[in-house]
């Protein structure tokens, strides 16, 4: 992408306007493992936002940071939440539209054949 890729667009990172507003009025409070940057307004700490690293998809925000953004927790996730337990899987973004999306048997993108109907269904016919 060229120099002007984010001049007026918002769907692949922050536009210039959002970046300028964030640097001028916000205080960077942290970054997550995906590179998303989290801000808090300098004069009103209840105003919080994120600048995504890559496409703007809120499902890419980890649960702890999501709780902080929504005001569920006041402290940063590292201080307010316990460490991830060994049996917990890392969060995954929404996979809809990707090759890893769930596709049940019999669907156009799925494997296998759909199980036959069990006979408990009666088709509606107009009278």
From TrEMBL:
This is NADH:ubiquinone oxidoreductase subunit NDUFA12. Residues 82-127 are annotated as: Disordered. The keyword DNA repair does not apply. NCBIfam families: PRK08183.1. It comes from Sphingomonas rhizophila. InterPro entries: NDUFA12. GO terms for biological process: response to oxidative stress. Pfam families: NDUFA12 (PF05071). Keywords: Ubiquinone. It comes from the Bacteria. One of its GO terms (cellular component) is respiratory chain complex I.
């Amino acid at each position: 992408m060229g120099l002007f890729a984010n001049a007026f667009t918002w769907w692949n990172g922050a536009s210039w306007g959002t970046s300028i507003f964030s640097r001028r009025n916000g205080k960077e409070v942290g970054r997550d493992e995906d590179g998303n940057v989290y801000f808090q307004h300098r004069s009103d700490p209840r105003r919080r936002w994120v600048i995504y690293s890559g496409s703007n998809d809120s499902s890419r925000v980890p649960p702890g940071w999501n709780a902080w953004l929504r005001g569920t927790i006041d402290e940063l996730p590292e201080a307010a939440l316990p460490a991830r337990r060994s049996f917990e899987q890392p969060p995954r973004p929404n996979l809809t539209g990707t090759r890893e999306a769930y596709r049940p048997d019999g669907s156009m993108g799925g494997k296998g054949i759909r199980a036959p109907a069990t006979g408990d269904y009666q088709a509606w016919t107009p009278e």
